[in-house]
Amino acid sequence: MTKTTVPSLDGVDLARLPKVSLHDHLDGGLRPQTIIDLAREIDLELPADNADDLAQWFLDQCNAGNLVDYLKTFDLSTAVMQSEAGLRRVAHEFVLDLAEDGVIYAEIRWAPEQHLTRGLSLDQVVEAVQAGLEDGVTEVRESGRDIEVGQLITAMRHADRALEIAELAVRHRDRGVSGFDIAGAEDGFLPSRHREAFDYLAKNFFPVTVHAGEAAGLESITSAIFDGRALRLGHGVRLAEDVTVERSDDDEVYVNIGRLSEWVRDREIVLELSPSSNMQTGAVAAWGDELEDHPFDMLHQLGFRVTVNVDNRTMSGTSLTRELGLLVETFGYDLEDLETFQLNAAAGAFLPLEDREYLVEQIQAGFDAVRE
Description:
Layout: E1 19-25, H1 32-41, H2 51-62, H3 67-72, H4 74-79, H5 84-100, E2 103-110, H6 122-142, E3 148-156, H7 162-171, E4 177-183, H8 195-203, E5 209-212, H9 218-226, E6 232-235, E7 243-247, E8 253-257, H10 259-266, E9 270-273, H11 275-280, H12 296-301, E10 306-308, H13 313-316, H14 320-331, H15 335-348, H16 353-371
Parallel strand pairs: 1-2, 2-3, 3-4, 5-6, 6-9, 9-10
Antiparallel strand pairs: 7-8
Helix pairs in contact: 5-6, 7-8, 15-16
């Protein structure tokens, strides 16, 4: 799916680096050929009849510069994910693609309520995806590699099923589900709309990440933290609106961090940044239209717990390896920086403490191995 040559770093193949993926949408990462195969089974008309052209169509459609148009492409991917077999295949292949990308731990988010048009129940679709994920994990391990995955059950923020979806997530917490999220059109749909669901999750000690700070700004982030009790911010890139940088007449640089951004930084709330996607959706338009304008580096330098993510592999024609390569090219990061991003992600993973500590050990060992 990669459309750009991925640079190496000091001769190191970035694909070899162990990675943690926290913000990876299942319905945004289908293989184009799989879409074609599944569409044929249900007589669904596609904008292209071969995998390469379909992949390019997704890229072209997603470069609209706003989240609303970007999200329209999901009508096509979700349309072929309405049967147990289709969901299981997509989830299985998703894990294989993660492993090829060097991912050793991933939380895969998706919205069960969008996969019910052919008569499946909410529990059935969750079980179908879990079966596919387990198929993928088994195949990866049989190939001599290792990977762990979990589901992030997502509610659509413009709908009114958040409490029902929260209950679904908790119901499957010991059967593959790691956490809860809300997604969809962000602007005009604050997390406070779903306060009852978030209260229920808090009472059940269930971890939450919230899409915030992408298509909407600081009010959305504030609501994610206050109403949603979010441990992570899905994107959160517009938190940079709460940071001002001033240069004095004698060329001294002064950085002012607002109360909200100070809270996020000091409490190490994870930012799930997705560089390519953030450019496509216009999330960083206030700072410019080139990757070098993305506030990723500023947030990193100021000590925020930044992580690198793909958001949607198919829509952005990307991989986690490619995203790291783009950041290396743009900001001159070294292996220590890339390792920090993975350790940040490991620290924010919705895992028990002991498992997070083991994940940290795996990351450190993997980076040490490529340095030898």
